[in-house]
Amino acid sequence: MPETNPETHVIDYRAAEQLLAARDPRGAVKLLDSVIAAHPENTAARLLRARAFFAAAQLRPAELEFELVLEREPDNAFAHFALARTFQRSGRPEQAKRHFRLAAALDPKPEYLEAARFPVDFPADMPPEE
Residue 92 carries which DSSP code? Predict the structure, then answer.
């Protein structure tokens, strides 16, 4: 087995990003396993692995990773959104709805608002906030 060091982990992380972008989520997971084994506290690597699990339709591992990210970063809107998509895909709409709403509340991006069923534009007769 080749020697690993911090630079190797960075290279593996970047390669995993590329594999995920190239639609090889299982390859990305393999690379990230060693990165996370060496750096279990690395939330970015866990979030990337969660995305790779989701892309590979491994919904339970994706759910567990997204939840772990949210334990460490409860204000991570993307992790809430992605966990909601995971729940949605797993046929758990009530759990999905909760996380879609949290994502939209944390970051009012149009896709988060739409998923949470919030209006993107407020009615014209609503007074502005002061």
Answer: -
